[in-house]
Amino acid sequence: MEFKLKYTNAVSEPCGVFVEDIDMMAWIDVASEFNSSSVRFYPVPGKTANSIAGALLIVDNSKGIGSNKHVKVQSIGTCFFLPENAEVSPKLDEKSIATRFNNKPHFFHPVYGLIELTELTDWATFVDLKPLQVQLIQPKPGLDSPQKLGNYFIRDIEPENVLDDLIKKTVPNRDKLDSPPLTTWEKFKMKALRTLVGKTKSNEGKSGPDSALNQNVKPLNKKSWWKRKQEGMEDELHELEERNKKELDKLMVMLDKDPDAALRYALPIDRSGYSRGPDVGFKMSKRWGLGTSNSSGGGGSVNIGESETDILRRKYSSMADQYIAEEKWEKASFVYLELLSDPNLAGNTLERGGKYEAAAAVFLAKCKNKVRAASCYESGKFYGRAIDLNEEMDNQMKVGDLQTKMGNVTKAKTAYSKEVSKLLVNKRFLDAGTVSNEKLHDLSKAREFYMKGWDDKQRPDECLNSYLDTYNLSEKKKNINSLHRKEFVGQDAHQFIGVLKTQLNKEKDLQKDVELVVYETVARNSRLDKSIVEALKDFNKGDL
């Protein structure tokens, strides 16, 4: 019988692949890609005698073949293999194949023909299967990787260094304007000339006997020595004052044209308009400083009139507003801190922009406000610095909260215990009970402090309500009856009834127990205190 192979679009489930390669390592590489526990290797002879064309790899699990660049193989029955997309003509069923080929495996290939697969590859002849003597070294147990990040905090640096970094980042390459500032001698000379020229003009306007005697004397053709000297002083004073103003004039123009560049040369002013000493704010050039015409001019300041100071202040404020609109928080804070002498606004601006460490440094170093500084450190997760500041302020509650965030349970409990001790000294029993209950989770101590507050008349209503709130419904009923046996009278009776009213508003299931206790309390006190009868209207609707 003649067999023929024909192409077909029908695709059967593959049972293996044909690796057309004489390299046995290539066969192993392909087999290693299979997701199968068993692979049979059948060598396929080539066209010439004693040659190998490749190998037929048959697996026990067709799903383990996966995608493969080699030709997939299908099977008819258990022993007849064809390439994928091929069918044999005439068609044979499994029984006919087993009879015709004596149950021996055959591979029908369009190039190599019908091949009987007479033997499996004996890997023992190619691979040394002797066990290797290997010395295993077991590593030491390592650290377990955390499965969950409990907390984190950022390493903090000294506030002074933060401010130095801020100024360097905000206004790098600070410089001086072209016009040289007045020297110390020139400033002293300008001040002296102002005094001399002012006195001379004042004396010229005076009238007296000498002026009357000399009014008929004709003036000399030449100016007197003093007159010439006076005019020379006026000229010199004018020159010094012009030089003193020249720096400000250039700055005004620069503020309008290029505000960023103007920051390099800006002249600080304080709220009063007077110059500031060189040690205020960031460490800038001593020539930075701005004062009014009444200023002494110390510290390298420029002496200007009040109107110029107001103009400059408005320009600075407008510049800061523009920087905030552009979310340039550091530059805006620089204007507030160094040019307008308003550290509070500088700190607020940095905090608003999320620059928490810089904001805290400003509040701490410039405003001396530890509360705001600690808050900024906490917002920025600089927990170590925030804890230190709260320790200085003896804010143990906040210290405990921060230690809890850092996972330091023991230190947190120590801080909360200190807070409870402070509260007890001040007879704040309600707060002491709350801290014990919510922070230290010590319910027995909390109840003790709540009852202490009730007994000592320290916010008694709130303390007794908090005490009862620590119990479930059944236990609360028992405690209400137990308290009732103390037979409260007078103000204690009024307060006790008020507490019961609050508890009834919280839990309606208490109504029968509460109404009975209220009735007996009112009955016990009504002879001496008629007003207590009014309490009944808040409870029973006519059943008592």
User: Level of helix content?
Assistant: 40-55%
State the distance separating the first and last CA atoms.
113 Å
Strand share of the residues?
A: 5-15%
Structural class: alpha+beta
For the largest beta-sheet, the strand count, sense and barrel status come to:
7 strands, mixed
In DSSP terms (H or I, runs of 4 or more residues), the helix count works out at 21
Shape: flat
Q: What topology, given as strand order, has the largest sheet? A: 3-4-2-5-6-8-9
- SS elements, strand count: 11
Please give the structural blueprint.
Layout: E1 4-7, E2 16-19, H1 24-32, E3 39-45, E4 52-59, E5 71-76, E6 80-83, E7 86-89, H2 94-100, E8 106-109, E9 113-116, H3 159-170, H4 184-204, H5 209-213, H6 225-257, H7 259-262, E10 290-292, E11 302-304, H8 306-325, H9 329-339, H10 343-352, H11 356-365, H12 370-379, H13 383-392, H14 396-405, H15 409-425, H16 429-438, H17 443-455, H18 460-469, H19 473-484, H20 491-506, H21 511-525
Parallel strand pairs: 6-8, 10-11
Antiparallel strand pairs: 1-7, 2-4, 2-5, 3-4, 5-6, 8-9
Helix pairs in contact: 3-11, 4-6, 8-9, 9-10, 10-11, 11-12, 12-13, 13-14, 14-15, 15-16, 16-17, 17-18, 18-20, 19-21, 20-21
Q: What would your notes on this structure say?
A:
By secondary structure, the chain is of the alpha+beta class. Helices cover 49% and strands 9% of the residues. It has 21 helices and eleven strands. A seven-stranded mixed sheet has the order 3-4-2-5-6-8-9. β5 and β6 form a beta hairpin. α19 packs parallel to α21. It is flat and about 140 Å long. About 9% of the residues have low confidence.
